[in-house]
Amino acid sequence: MRKNFGAKPFLFPQPVMIIGTYDENGKANAMNAAWGGIVGADEIMIDLSSHKTTDNLLRSRAFTVSVGDVEHMAACDYVGLVSANKEENKMEKAGFTTVKSEFVNAPVINELPLTLECELTDVIGGSKFLGKIVNVSIDEKVLGDDGELSLEKFEPITYDTVHFGYYRLGGKVGNAFKDGNALK
Q1: Residue 4, in any domain of the structure
Q2: Whose CA is closest to 56, among 92, 80, 85, 81?
Q3: CA of 103: how far to CAs of 70, 99, 123, in Å?
Q4: Which strand (E) or helix (H) includes residue 39?
Q5: Is residue 96 part of a domain?
Q6: How far apart are CA 62 and CA 117, in angstroms?
Q7: What is the value of pTM for the model shown?
Q8: How many distinct structural domains can be found in the chain?
Q9: Which H helix or E strand runs over 62?
Q10: What's the CATH number where 160 sits?
Q11: Which neighbouring-strand residues pair with 106?
Q12: Where is each Flavin reductase like domain found (predicted)?
């Protein structure tokens, strides 16, 4: 038996995306974005209402998307709760430090190990920001022996849109482009 819930944003896992931008004075800002994801090999879309971040993004036409992790869960939640319009020291209070991306005019948050560096390409319907991913930077501490991102070392968190919780992702359960061959 199935129960119907109507139109709800129940797609899992939902990444915890921390959007980084610079304000008009070059000060780094970040916010937690609940809605968005990869929409192509080098594209990402985030749906944002009006924020300091959206003002910054529209002016600079650049942003970063860092993925929240277990270690920085509280800081990631904090930057979603507090507006840079009201808290001047938001980044410092979150414990986030930044460096300027080498590829776009946006900050990379040092504490979050995975960052997509993006150029704004379009705004759809006034709230959906489409970006071209021009670089992905990854802290070497979460790279495996093969030099690639290791989900055994990186602990991203996912957002539960039903109960408003954050969860860590579990362990590996299979091999993509391989295990399905057993059903051929």
Answers
A1: no
A2: 85
A3: 27, 12, 21
A4: strand 35-40
A5: yes
A6: 8
A7: 0.94
A8: 1
A9: strand 62-67
A10: 2.30.110.10
A11: none
A12: 10-148
Q: What are the start-end ranges of the H helices in 35-158?
A: 52-60, 73-81, 90-94
Q: Are 84 and 41 in contact (CB under 8 A)?
A: no
**Does 72 fall in a domain?**
yes
Domain assignment present for residue 93? The answer is: yes
Residue 164 phi, psi dihedral angles, 5° rounding = 60, 45
Q: Which residue has the tokens 């009201």?
A: 86
pLDDT tens digit at each of 184 positions of the chain: 999 999 988 888 999 999 999 999 999 999 999 899 999 999 999 999 989 999 999 999 999 999 999 999 999 999 999 998 899 999 999 999 999 999 999 999 999 999 999 999 999 999 999 999 999 999 999 999 999 999 999 999 999 999 999 999 888 889 999 999 999 9
Domain that holds residue 160: 17-183
For residue 18, what are the CA distances in angstroms to 3, 78, 111, 112? Answer: 33, 11, 12, 9
Q: Please state, in angstroms and rounded to a whole number, the distance separating the CA atoms of residues 131 and 120.
A: 4
CA–CA distance from 177 to each of 41, 140, 180, 181 (Å)? 17, 27, 7, 8
DSSP 3-34: ----S----SS-B-EEEEEE-TTS-EEEEEE-
